[in-house]
């Protein structure tokens, strides 16, 4: 097993990874930007290295600085967390070439799944159902119009290199598609340096259902259940839960068998997530994330498996500790992403945290890097905490979530806690009846 791991990330996820490393007796190296010298992940780590200026490109995306930090501290492995370089195949490749272990899948799998067009093609060859669409990159408007004519409007234009909910445009008619294609190609080129776009049928009331997998290099594949991440704003998840209140056990098992077969055909290594849209009893593959996900704690709560520990073990060449093909969830778990932003306008709200009180009690977990007196810098992701609850039933988990949200105090900055409080009290949420469009509809109807 590794003696020392460099965590190439910051904030809540860096703290999360550090905690598991310490439980495994592994020393940690924190890297930080000049803006993060007093961050919790730096305070907790065994040692730390400043890798550059506040802007992500100068620090957390700065590959030479990260690798130099690993070199000078004698770290043996690098955990990328999520965001930043977690899905950068080149980073994974260079890390390995320099003799460090990259805690993640093979660079070829990161590359293949990072290109959504390639990912859809691969999924089709593994027998996973996909959404009707162009099946490949579009450059001519005539081609886009003819695909749309065939599958019917509305359609969605998506960037092959897209991520984080960016680079998607919906079109309800041919004139709108002309504009959408043009705008999407320009935006994708500017944002991702790759202007390839493709087209899919826009599903009008699907749920987002994803499957968590863990694979080792000894041929073991474990399916850790699904997560329902339908509550989204601008295609970004806000609340996630497991099991999904919408999927029957039979549908679940059929899907899991297909995903397990796909992992075996790929020879996948490590943690990964297959994302699907689910409508009228059908699952449609949309993409695969080749990394740890923000919402992994809900899976940990119902399986009792530390996903980060398993990532580290399989990266070290060990077998998965738990090799059941499919885990049966114990109870129900829900996560709320707490963002430092105005709950009404969604404008980011960095600044000094004057008060901080995290909820506790049975079945409550808070993953956060906040502490009283800490200043949230303006340069990074707005998610500053995750509130995760576990209950024997969904009803118990919802009740516990409401209670925990009542207790949560973050003073000095604005957060979306008021939005969560309102949202979890709606009949739709309490009944588990919602789609990917429900949150936007709720926001249009409610002032906070
Ligand atoms: P990203 O990589 O940017 O997260 P995804 O392909 O995972 O993009 O899609 C993110 C979200 O966008 C989905 O969860 C869903 O809400 C919405 N979405 C994507 N494709 C479609 C589609 N064909 N129809 C309706 N909504 C879609």
> In the CATH hierarchy, what is the superfamily of the largest domain?
ATP-grasp fold, B domain
Shape: globular
Low-confidence stretches: none
Report the CATH architecture of the largest domain.
Answer: 2-Layer Sandwich
Q: What structural class do you assign from the helix and strand content?
A: alpha+beta
The averaged pLDDT comes out at 96
Care to describe what's here?
By secondary structure, the protein is of the alpha+beta class. The chain has three domains: 4-86, 3-Layer(aba) Sandwich (Rossmann fold), CATH 3.40.50.20; 132-201, Dna Ligase, domain 1, CATH 3.30.1490.20; 207-445, D-amino Acid Aminotransferase, Chain A, domain 1, CATH 3.30.470. 35% of the residues lie in helices and 26% in strands. The chain is built from 15 helices and 20 strands. The protein has helices spanning 11-23, 40-44, 63-73, 89-97, 107-114, 116-125, 141-151, 174-192, 249-266, 296-303, 307-315, 394-407, 417-424, 427-431, 438-445; strands at 4-7, 27-33, 47-52, 77-79, 101-102, 155-159, 168-171, 197-201, 207-215, 221-233, 236-242, 270-279, 282-289, 332-339, 351-352, 355-357, 364-368, 375-376, 383-391, 409-411. The strands form five sheets. Strands 13-12-9-10-11-14-19-17 form an eight-stranded antiparallel sheet. A five-stranded parallel sheet has the order 3-2-1-4-5. It has a three-stranded antiparallel sheet with strand order 7-6-8, with helices on one face. β10 and β11 form a beta hairpin. α4 packs antiparallel against α5. The termini are far apart. The mean pLDDT is 96. The site of adenosine-5'-diphosphate (ADP) has 21 residues, from β8, β12 and β13. Adenosine-5'-diphosphate binds next to β8, β12 and β13.
